[in-house]
Amino acid sequence: MITLEEKVLAKNDHLAGHNRELFAARGVRAINLMSSPGSGKTTLLERTLRAVTDRPVAVIEGDQETALDADRIRATGCPVVQVNTGAGCHLDAAMVRDAVERLDPAPGTLLFIENVGNLVCPALFDLGEDARVVVVSVTEGTDKPLKYPAMFAAADLVVVNKLDLLPYVDFDLELCRKYLGSRAVVALSATRGDQVELWLEWLTG
């Protein structure tokens, strides 16, 4: 089983390298957006897509079934391709390559890859992205970085979402920051818009 996993990841890494070359050639910045289900990734994306007006934006939407989130993204006017993984718990580099070919993003596009909701498998698969962002909501508990260390260790940014619910749940923001160590952290409310400008500054910085 270990040998099989190594071969699968080696093939994926090879394809991810090709994706990275393609993105670089087109000046595309690809953001791999990961989280557990219900953290608010799609809500954050909706608000982001309406705020980013100075460059082309596109989305690859990953889910096991349905196109519900893709429909939400499409309603913002943003180009989107839905990828359904069936029983699969993550996107891989081949899926992303196929989706990019369908999207045909313009030069300079900001490309969001909304991964399948899962804090385990997506951490293992390089997609050729420029940055990995992990979204965690205050409703999930302070200890998520301790329970899923590989996911958070791979993050270039951690977004703590649903800040508007902080007074009503048992979540210690400062302790969560401590668990995350040197990881960059932005705390916001995608629903209400609190501190979303910090996220937008990171995107454009």
Task: Summarize the SSE layout with pairings.
Blueprint: H1 2-26, E1 29-35, H2 41-51, E2 57-63, H3 68-74, E3 80-84, H4 93-103, E4 110-114, E5 131-137, H5 144-147, H6 149-153, E6 157-161, H7 173-180, E7 184-187, H8 196-204
Parallel strand pairs: 1-4, 1-5, 2-3, 2-4, 5-6, 6-7
Could you explain the architecture of this structure?
The chain is α/β, with parallel strands linked by helices and 205 residues long. Helix content is 39%, strand content 20%. A seven-stranded parallel β-sheet has the order 3-2-4-1-5-6-7, sandwiched between helices. Strand 2 (57-63), helix 3 and strand 3 form a beta-alpha-beta unit. Helix 1 packs parallel to helix 4. The longest helix is centred in the N-terminal third of the chain and has 25 residues, at 2-26. The chain is globular, with a radius of gyration of 16 Å. The N and C termini lie far apart (42 Å).
